[in-house]
Amino acid sequence: EPAPARDKEKIVEQQAANLSPKEHLDQLFAALKRERDADKADNIANEIRAEWNDSGSATVNLLMQWADKAIEEKRNSAALDFLDQAIALKPGYSESWNRRATLNYTNGAMRKSMSDIEHVLDIEPRHFGALAGMASILGDSGNDQAALKAWERFLEIYPANRNAQEQLNTLSEKLAGSRT
């Protein structure tokens, strides 16, 4: 590898190290929006998820780990307690709301799940995981038009996601068919 390319990589790494978490996230989202290769986009999305997983609070991070372990062990009420505590300690942390939305969805509590998703999107409007959850709930409840809009929002943020593309196409065809 030629020296200028190596130097350029070092400079990019140094710049990344100097970024605030928010600036780093903004950079990752810009890359995600540009990336057309599904596998490369998936790697960027995983980096974004890794950023989201750090609340900036050791206590909240620990509560989140406990919640994950409880979910794994099918101890859903314990998991809800941990997530409720994480939310109470740091209401501006989107991932605790998102994890609780997923758990409520799993438990069949769709209204609660949707309410938590709305909190996630208030905090982080680019949360593609929450948008996918919203689209699923809307689709499950037969609200295809609103589900379509949620998938469109998802794809504005994460255009290379194959699942979202397929969901959008299926819903578009379904809605087009119901109009004829």
Description:
The protein has 180 residues and is mainly α. Helix content is 81%, strand content 0%. Helix 2 packs antiparallel against helix 3 and helix 8 runs antiparallel to helix 9 (144-157). The chain is flat and about 60 Å long. The mean pLDDT is 92.
Which geometry do the CA atoms define? flat
Radius of gyration: 19 Å
Helix content: over 70%
What is the typical, i.e. mean, pLDDT?
A: 92
Which structural category fits the helices and strands? mainly alpha
- Number of DSSP-assigned strands: 0
Query: Which spans of ≥5 residues are poorly predicted at pLDDT below 50?
Result: none
What is the string of helix and strand elements?
A: HHHHHHHHHH
Counting DSSP H or I runs of 4 or more residues, the number of helices is: 10
What layout of secondary structure does this protein have?
Blueprint (H helix, E strand, L loop, with lengths): L2 H15 L3 H14 L3 H16 L4 H15 L3 H14 L4 H13 L3 H14 L4 H13 L3 H14 L4 H18 L1
Helix pairs in contact: 2-3, 4-5, 5-6, 6-7, 6-8, 7-8, 8-9, 9-10
Which terms summarize this structure?
180 residues; mainly alpha; 10 helices; 0% strand
In short, what is this structure?
The protein is mostly helical and 180 residues long.
